[in-house]
Amino acid sequence: MKIFTYLIFSFIVPVSWSQTVVPEEERFAQVVEQSLKAFYEDYANSTDYDSIMKAFNYEANYIPSFSDEVYCERLEKMNNMSTFDFQCNQPSLDIVKFFVDKRRNFARVVLGRSALYFDMFEETLDKYDMPIELKYLAVIESGLRPQVRSHAGALGLWQFMYRTGLYYGLEENTYIDERMDPVLATDAACRYLKKLYDIYGDWNMALAAYNAGPGNVNKAIRRSGGKTSYWEVRPFLPRETQGYVPNFIGAAYLLTYHKEHNLVPAPAKLHNSQLDTFCVREGMYMTKISDLIGWDVEEIKELNPIYKRAFIPKTTPPQCITGPLEIIGKLVSMEEQLYAKPKSEIDSVALAKDSLNNSDSLDSEIGKIVRIDEPKVAIHSVRRGETLGGIASQYGVTIEDLKKWNDLSSSSLIVGQKLKVEGSKGEAGKSAPVVKEKPKPVVKYYKVRSGDNFSTVARRHGLTQTQLKKLNPKVDVNRLKIGQTLRVK
């Protein structure tokens, strides 16, 4: 307890009496955030690769080579530490040698990107009781790039095809594609791989089915005379799938033994532990967030590949954005400014209310009131790929409104078609704004379920981890128990 107290308060910066006094609860939140930031930075940079390389006594550009016996010993060690089958045969050896000689730069880049994803992969794989080594599958699928699209149309870290993604709950519309969401796609990939393993009872066969589809694997089983192991069925699989498992083994080997092969990871921009999330109540452009807190739009898009455009739509549950702890904390502290209406709109509402409440000036101001309430009409030109629902979401109106304003009998659209959009949020043509009484805050609780952690609970309820911690100040975020009650509102 004394050590923790010292750790927390060692980050407090003395404040002179002449400065603005910060509220106690905000000051404490700042202290905690500073402490966490320092801890996560230490954790993210805990591996001293310089000292590791000195231990091997390698020159900077030296490429080590080893005998087949050494490669097989290392694969056997990997095999003994995993339920996965890392066989040392000729196809595996050929790929391992190719990777350690010809894929060195790729390995360095992937090792740098892995800081952002591998912890999350391992957590999800552990949740489903699956081999941790399956994290390397995303390496050969996408090179750990969530926006990459294959020539066949597969997308994301785990390269989901559109229909397979839909089947496992990954939705797509005009503004979002959940195949590119690292967390959602990883969970879906684990469920899909788990299902394939339940079918074939062999992880190598599950990988083959992940690549070629169960139909092609079943055909190969029949052509092999009913064999059930990957290496026996392999000659009957499509050519790409024949190399798929050896490629996986080669990538797993190289990333496991990268230090022995004189490979230093490329610098990582961020570590997964340094991220938090913020969920938005309204649809908004990323430029608004950027203008408010100085967070570059390209960085927002890079850390939030789920969004196909620089626009975050309003949905239920709300959409969230991921960012560095410090930036998300700043966004939380400026949340009211984020949702504040432009001054011109506030002035118009105030003028209307003042005019209605002042009978002496009602006649003179009636023209202004009419102009304030008169619905504005926007003309939207339909672009390729847009849907009526997506356009309605963009303007904050309903599909029924769009159909009524444009005399549409169906939801079908034509590229270049002009649509009339009246007012905003479906309230065009209404009288002066009605001020509603602010509802009393509602307290809501959630019981922890199997597989939950502090991050997933926060995300599920549209909160940041910092906000969830403020609601549950006495909860140990690293020791959640099944059945434990957390306040989420």
Structure description:
By secondary structure, the chain is mostly helical. It has helices at 2-9, 24-44, 49-56, 68-80, 90-102, 104-127, 137-142, 162-167, 182-200, 203-212, 214-223, 230-233, 239-242, 244-256, 286-293, 297-303, 325-333, 335-339, 343-357, 362-373, 388-395, 399-406, 454-460, 465-471; strands at residues 275-279, 284-285, 311-312, 320-324, 377-381, 418-422, 445-447, 485-487. A two-stranded antiparallel sheet has the order 1-4. A two-stranded antiparallel sheet has the order 2-3. The protein is globular and about 75 Å long. The two termini are 29 Å apart.
Write the layout of secondary structure elements.
Blueprint: H1 2-9, H2 24-44, H3 49-56, H4 68-80, H5 90-102, H6 104-127, H7 137-142, H8 162-167, H9 182-200, H10 203-212, H11 214-223, H12 230-233, H13 239-242, H14 244-256, E1 275-279, E2 284-285, H15 286-293, H16 297-303, E3 311-312, E4 320-324, H17 325-333, H18 335-339, H19 343-357, H20 362-373, E5 377-381, H21 388-395, H22 399-406, E6 418-422, E7 445-447, H23 454-460, H24 465-471, E8 485-487
Antiparallel strand pairs: 1-4, 2-3, 5-6, 7-8
**Helix content range:** 40-55%
Strand content: 5-15%
- Count of individual beta strands: 8
Low-pLDDT ranges: 1-22, 24-29, 358-375, 424-438
Averaged pLDDT: 80
Distance between the termini: 29 Å
CA gyration radius, whole angstroms: 28 Å
- Strands of the widest sheet, in order across it, are 1-4
How many helices? The count is: 24
Q: Strand count, sense and closure of the main sheet?
A: 2 strands, antiparallel
Anisotropy-based shape: globular
Structural class: mainly alpha
